[in-house]
Amino acid sequence: MNIACRLTATIPEDLPGSRFAQLHRSTCLKCQAEEARQRALLRELAALRSEHLVAPPMVHARVMARLGRQDEQARLSRSGWRVVGGSIAATAIGAAAVFGGMARRRARVSG
Amino acid sequence: MIPPQVQSDERTLVERARSGDQAAFSELVWRHQDAMFTLATRLVGPDLAPDVTQEALLRAWRALPKFRGEARFSTWLHRITVNAAWTQRKRAARHEAVPLIEDTHEDTAPGPEFAGEMVDVRAGLREAIESLSDGQRAVVVLRDVYGWTNQEVADELDITRTTAKVRLHRARMKLREILEEAS
């Protein structure tokens, strides 16, 4: 293989130098044969796309089970926050009532 | 070509799933899991592929509210699968991950269109793809098997377009070397 053939084989398409490769290939039978082999490879690769593998049934089952658990967690966390929120509100109301009572008593004493 | 009836049916399912309907999402999983599993197998091999598919589907569920329908749903799922495969591969490289699902099986039975010789060539090609480095395999699978553009490959793998091209060229050369050695 001469240097021109080697360069032609090493330069990726659409990159600087590929014009040189194209010109060389148009006159070199060895490189044309090489290109034909490359095309055959690309055809084979593209044909792999039509191949169809079957996912293990466990994939579906596990995904749906995880979604169920996530929803349950979200629901529990929402209800947990509701309990916390309720307690805070009750504490706030209680505190307001106590302070209100104290303020009214102080007003009566001073009045 | 997907018939319009199926497309609109799928759009309805996606809309329902977006609003949290798990039954609709379950149907979408049935429809797309094989394609996602096939892509995952090409990217990370059969041992990690079930985990990658599962992870990608969970990510899809979480990201569904953000899916605006600009790309086809299957394309969107493919992108998520590539991301999940990338994450899984990195994790596996760090910890030698043990797959969560043991009962992986492949439907390797050839269809009627496969001549015996063709099956041999394909099997050799599959093995050759598996023996590429992670980066080369990802580029060759996305570009040459799935027909993505160089730009799409570059964007998805977070590399420049030139790197994608050079990697692709090297991967093809490597594949031919392996196949020629084998034959």
Provide a descriptive summary of the structure in words.
The complex is a heterodimer of chains A (about 110) and B (about 180). Chain A is an all-alpha fold and about 110 residues long. The model of chain A has no long low-confidence stretch (mean pLDDT about 80). Chain A has 2 domains: about 45 residues, no CATH class; about 35 residues. The relative contact order of chain A is 0.05. Chain B is mainly α and about 180 residues long. Chain B folds into 2 domains: about 100 residues, Rna Polymerase Sigma Factor, Chain: A, CATH 1.10.1740; about 70 residues, Arc Repressor Mutant, subunit A, CATH 1.10.10. Helix content of chain B is about 75%, strand content about 0%. In chain B, helix 1 packs across helix 2 and helix 6 runs antiparallel to helix 7. The longest helix of chain B has 23 residues. Chains A and B meet through helix 3 and helix 4 of A and helix 2, helix 3, helix 5, helix 6 and helix 8 of B.
What are the SSEs and their pairings?
The complex is a heterodimer of chains A (111) and B (183).
Chain A lengths: L2 H8 L7 H10 L1 H19 L9 H54 L1
Helix pairs in contact in A: 1-2, 2-3
Chain B lengths: L3 H15 L3 H23 L4 H15 L9 H23 L20 H15 L3 H12 L4 H8 L3 H22 L1
Helix pairs in contact in B: 1-2, 2-3, 2-4, 2-6, 3-4, 5-8, 6-7, 6-8, 7-8
List its salient traits.
heterodimer; A: 111 residues; mainly alpha; B: 183 residues; Rna Polymerase Sigma Factor, Chain: A; Arc Repressor Mutant, subunit A; 8 helices; elongated
Rg of chain B (CA only): 18 Å
What's the helix count of chain B? Answer: 8
Task: Determine the N-to-C terminus distance of chain B.
Answer: 37 Å
Total of helices of chain A: 4
Low-confidence stretches of chain B: 97-115
Rounded to the nearest angstrom, the radius of gyration of chain A is 39 Å
CATH topology of the largest domain in chain B: Rna Polymerase Sigma Factor, Chain: A
Biggest interface goes to:
A-B, 32 and 46 residues
User: What structural class is derived from the secondary structure elements of chain B?
Assistant: mainly alpha
Strand content of chain B: under 5%
Whole-number average pLDDT of chain A? 80
Largest sheet of chain B: none
Mean pLDDT of chain B comes to 84
- Globally, the shape of chain B reads elongated
Assess the beta-strand content of chain A as a share of residues.
under 5%
